[in-house]
Specification:
Layout: H1 6-29, H2 40-67, H3 82-115, H4 122-148
Length: about 180
């Protein structure tokens, strides 16, 4: 599984920013009040960030214990269900994507409020800033939780990992064999 790309997060944040800006612009041109996020949204985003980290922590602890030679005894090692780790990694990825969209959305709302000639109400700006900060906390916490669920040495640049080292051909067992040079 690949880690979440920063480019994807940036694109989602930009798209969320455009939607937030256009939403407030559309509401204003229709003669309605601008959109202000509820104060419960930042609280829920921070709680989600805490929950994602709490779910990923046992996996990190298990991976770190199995990597230490002195902790490899059966009594100290805790096995983690790989499906559980995958589900938590997917939760972390979804949370980082959601956080990026909400960061952009809140930034778009704030940009529209600050671009108007009249001074926006303090309550609106406070709610928008709190939403952006909480969504940024969620995005960072989710990326950290996603890294907790990754096995060390599994990257494409690791020669000992499954993607690095010699090319394997027709190998369906646990014993890797390098492709023999036939000289053709």
């Amino acid at each position: 599984m690949k880690r979440t790309s920063p480019i994807v997060l940036l694109v989602l944040a930009l798209a969320g920013g455009a939607v937030g800006f256009l939403l407030d612009h559309g509401l204003t041109t229709a003669g309605r009040a601008t959109f202000t996020p509820a104060i419960a949204l930042p609280i829920l985003l921070v709680l989600l960030a805490i929950a994602v980290l709490a779910f990923a922590w046992p996996i990190r602890r298990s991976v770190r214990q199995s990597a230490k030679p002195e902790m490899r005894t059966a009594a100290h090692r805790r096995r983690v269900d790989p499906f559980r780790a995958f589900r938590i990694a997917m939760l972390a990825r979804a949370s980082s994507l959601l956080g990026a969209v909400i960061v952009g959305f809140g930034a778009g709302l704030g940009a529209y409020l600050l671009s108007r000639p009249i001074q926006p109400p303090i309550g609106s700006i406070t709610a928008v800033v709190a939403t952006v900060v909480a969504a940024l906390v969620l995005t960072i916490a989710a990326l950290v939780a996603e890294s907790f669920c990754m096995l060390p040495g599994n990257g494409p640049h690791d020669p000992d990992g499954p993607h690095g080292g010699p090319r394997l051909e027709g190998d369906d067992d646990e014993h890797p064999r390098a492709v023999a040079d036939t000289g053709h």
